[in-house]
Write a structure and sequence with these properties.
One of its GO terms (cellular component) is plasma membrane. It is an enzyme of class 3 (hydrolase). It is a multi-pass membrane protein. The chain is α+β, with helices and mostly antiparallel strands. The chain has one domain (about 5-145). Helix content is about 65%, strand content about 15%. The protein has helices at about 5-25, 60-85, 90-110, 130-155, 160-170; strands spanning about 35, 40-45, 115-120, 125. The protein has a four-stranded antiparallel β-sheet with strand order 1-2-3-4. Helix 2 runs antiparallel to helix 3 and helix 4 (about 130-155) packs across helix 5 (about 160-170).
């Protein structure tokens, strides 16, 4: 996949993420819940930590650590997009992850926390609130898993560069 296609996908995801966060913050107040269905609410919440509120109770240092990790991961992803541009599913998965990582990085740097607003639940159990960036990272990771299985299947029939690439990535 050409680099500009990969970056365009990441930019679309980033734009959707930032636009939805802007909309939620401009129409809701912190903690407000808007029931949508019997299993889904919109709820404005802030997460200064990582996924599932990991490190959210820390004193503020996590903002810069998590920002550095996201920035570093974004640089590695761009490198991988350039190096493995012929592997479409791999590049598509990385594009989703890149768009999501930059969306949450933007929040973390500009706001000091990530804006979350999607609240799925069953009965009284609520899954941790998340956003479009988190969803894109999840979809990208799922596609990456699918791609890794397909590369192993292809490697059994012909000597494919995907296996070599996966081994190099594991060494990073």
């Amino acid at each position: 996949m050409k680099l500009h296609y990969s970056l365009s996908i990441a930019l679309i995801i980033l734009s959707l993420d930032l636009a939805t966060k802007y909309w939620v913050e401009s129409t809701m107040v912190y903690g407000q819940q808007i029931p949508v269905t019997g299993f889904f609410n919109l709820v404005l919440t802030y997460n200064p930590g990582a996924a599932f509120s990991f490190l959210s109770e820390a004193s503020g240092w996590q903002r810069w650590l998590l920002s550095a990790i996201a920035a570093g991961a974004s640089i590695v992803i761009i490198y991988l997009l350039i190096k493995y541009k012929t592997e479409k599913l791999f590049c598509l998965s990385l594009s989703f992850i890149l768009g999501g990582a930059i969306g949450n990085l933007w929040d973390r740097i500009t706001l000091g926390h990530v804006v979350d607003f999607l609240d799925f639940y069953v009965g009284d159990y609520h899954w941790p609130a998340f956003n479009i960036a988190d969803s894109a990272i999840f979809v990208g990771a799922a596609l990456l898993i699918i791609e890794s299985f397909s590369s192993k299947e292809n490697a059994q029939t012909d000597s494919d560069s995907k296996v070599e690439r996966n081994e190099k990535i594991e060494k990073l």
